[in-house]
Amino acid sequence: MKKIWDKTFKKIHTNKRMLVFLFTLLFMAVLFGSFFATKLSTNDLEEIKSSLDTFFSMTKQNKLNPLPAFFQSFGANIMFTIAIWILGISVIGAPLMIVLFFMKAFTLGFTIASMIKIYRLKGLLYSLIYIFPHQVINLLVFIFFIMFSMSLSITLFQALLKKKTVDFSKVMNRYVFILAITIGILIITSLLEIYLMPFLFRMVVA
């Protein structure tokens, strides 16, 4: 276990440039998502407002069913994670990971900007509750997970080109370990989303 941890931290240290790229991609995707939200038509904004008002109303009346909500939240996160994990053991997975991560961050930026545009100052408060702490933790986890996955995909691609052998068993042991850690964190953040976020919304929604 200690060897796996040591190699994991070493991997993070040697992939600083990739981390910088992923954080930059996150910033750009959120920015693009926010910009897109500002260009929505009045009808589109009314539809989004109707959905948000329904959510806030159910939250205020404590009518949200936690179990289905948990499985919906965790299911979406785990599907994204598994998709990234599978792409990591593909020699052409890296570009697709970038696209998937951009889309996820774009959606987050769009949602935040929509809340602020619709509810103004209250929307800023709503968006903070929406992203803290679970969304922020998820994004950080996804960034590091994608870093490992992209690194593996690139390593496999280079090994294929140079016809080098890779100790696949050792690589997969570390990769499965990282997947298990990621899933564990996602379970915690999904619980925060289902129990903490509605509690905070009930405190601020008029």
Topology of helices and strands:
Elements: H1 2-14, H2 16-38, H3 42-60, H4 66-88, H5 93-119, H6 121-131, H7 134-162, H8 168-204
Helix pairs in contact: 2-5, 2-7, 4-5, 4-7, 4-8, 5-6, 5-7, 6-8, 7-8
Q: Would you mind describing this structure in some detail?
A:
By secondary structure, this protein is an all-alpha fold. The chain is built from eight helices and no strands. Helix 2 (16-38) packs across helix 7, helix 4 packs antiparallel against helix 5 and helix 4 (66-88) runs parallel beside helix 7 (134-162). 24% of the residues are buried. The chain is elongated, with a radius of gyration of 19 Å. Helix content is 88%, strand content 0%.
Order of helices and strands: HHHHHHHH
User: Main beta sheet: strand number and arrangement?
Assistant: none
Number of strands: 0
- Tally of alpha and pi helices: 8
Question: How big a fraction of the residues is strand?
Answer: under 5%
How far apart the termini lie comes to 50 Å
Using the CA coordinates, give the radius of gyration.
19 Å
Could you tell me the mean pLDDT? 85
Helix % is: over 70%
Low-confidence stretches: none
- Overall spatial form: elongated
Class inferred from helices and paired strands: mainly alpha
